[in-house]
Amino acid sequence: MRVALSALDNGRYSVAAGCVGIIQACIDISVKYARTRHQFGRPIGSFQLVQEMIADMVVDYEAARYLVYRAGHLKNKGVRNTRETSIAKLFASEAAIRAANNAIQIHGGYGYSRDVPAERYWRDARVAAIYEGTTQIQKLIIGRETLGINAIVPS
Ligand SMILES: Cc1cc2nc3c(=O)[nH]c(=O)nc-3n(C[C@H](O)[C@H](O)[C@H](O)COP(=O)(O)OP(=O)(O)OC[C@H]3O[C@@H](n4cnc5c(N)ncnc54)[C@H](O)[C@@H]3O)c2cc1C
Fold this sequence. Notes:
Elements: H1 2-36, E1 38-39, E2 42-43, H2 48-77, H3 82-106, H4 108-112, H5 118-128, H6 135-147
Antiparallel strand pairs: 1-2
Helix pairs in contact: 1-2, 1-3, 1-5, 2-3, 3-5, 3-6
The chain binds flavin-adenine dinucleotide.
The site of flavin-adenine dinucleotide has 8 residues, from helix 6.
């Protein structure tokens, strides 16, 4: 059982790390597009509300990355990391959904098409909040690890 449960921690960790990559990819395509797409005679990246979306992505990226590093550091040391891995998986998957959503938004109507990978990033991010334990299950694990009360299977 211990081996089986640690396998879940490893799977969740991989999903969280993958989500950091999705956020980075969302930033890369959004920055490129915001610099080159012009509206009202200027690049859309010069509009403050577009910069806000990019800033939100960057903050989410840095936070998700360091949560993944922390969980990975514990894994390398062979220390139990269920709580930290669930926190990383929960945050990184929800952050990746936010980032992909913003990447689609920054690309406007183009972002909804398959000509740019933003919609695929959104689908890839969306499933990350479902498999290897849904967002709700991660919250219940974090609650259990904090309270010492298991609410996943109500008694
Ligand atoms: C693309 C894809 C690939 C997958 N690959 C694999 C794989 O390789 N191996 C594998 O084993 N599985 C795999 N899965 C299955 C995946 O792990 C499950 O879909 C996931 O665990 C959710 O289970 P479920 O779909 O039965 O939803 P359910 O368990 O029916 O959940 C439905 C909803 O109820 C909520 N819920 C359920 N229980 C609770 C609770 N106790 N408290 C609060 N809310 C709750 C969930 O959070 C969710 O919102 C894959 C799924 C997808 C979509």
